Amino acid sequence: MPPSRQRAETPTLTATVPRQLVHRAAVAETFLTAWRRTETDRFAVSAQWPRAHGLHVSPDRSAYEPLLVVETVRQSGTLIAHTEYDVPLGHHFVLQEFDVDTIPEHLAVGPVPAEPVVDVHFVEVRHRAGRPAGARYTAEVLLDGALVATARVAFTCVAESVYRRLRGGRTPATVSAPPAPPGLPPEAVGRALPADVVLAPADRKDRWRLRVDTAHPVFFDHPLDHAPGMLLLECARQAARARAPEAGTPASFRSVFHRYAELDEPVWIEASDEGGTEMRILATQGESAVFECMVGLAKE
């Protein structure tokens, strides 16, 4: 066989990026496969989405969930921060803002795993003492050439020693969550399993307590000393579904993270209708807001 023909028929080999570069412990929760710089501060990140997943694929396996897009964009920014902007491994990333708009009709599960490409543009990188201390980036997620989502993200990053001072001695070994109270029925929040329900009933139909299960293999892929941002975004998704199931499917999220949601204190979730296609979700702990999100609803 001529060498040129042999090369042409050699299949492309695909593997995930090292899980440490996206702050995951499980390879199964690492969705990125490659990246390359396309121009100054702009990068193309390749991913693969599984056809079945406990959280990120619909219970009937027909559609990818918007929060899979969120996790893919989060991993993309973390990967690029480490590999292209020299943020050391071991630094902690703290979300400040995460906005995402998805196009549900382009998120159908096909006969093979989807392979989206994320166009990541770092529009601002802040430095402290010669090291990146935070950034803002935008992302466009394309699947088979079709735009499926746009996103805007802001985060800070700090060294382990600084993070420990900020946390005042709180570590996964010194804080723990109390037993999770019984949750809402899974069908009320668009989930198949009771273990994936993150809301417990409270005193009103528009108010719930956050269920924190530190054994959950996705939200707590590794030990944490606070409730992660993805858990808070999932609570916003579930609260919008529970508050107005007839209004549509959560498809966009405009979120602000005000402070850490501690594991050992109750977090209360409230939902208010902002006018038909939007729902405002507020999470509070004690007297302080920890997270708020405007959830946009798309008709099914």
Description:
It is a single chain. With 300 residues, this protein is an alpha+beta fold. 16% of the residues lie in helices and 36% in strands. The protein is built from four helices and 14 strands. It has helices spanning 3-9, 66-84, 160-167, 229-243; strands at 32-39, 42-47, 92-102, 117-128, 131-143, 146-158, 199-201, 207-210, 226-227, 249-257, 261-262, 268-273, 278-285, 288-298. The strands form two sheets. It has a twelve-stranded antiparallel beta sheet with strand order 1-2-4-5-6-3-10-14-13-12-8-7. A two-stranded antiparallel sheet has the order 9-11. A hairpin with a 2-residue loop joins strand 5 (131-143) and strand 6. The radius of gyration is 20 Å and the shape is globular. The model is unreliable at 3-7 (pLDDT under 50).
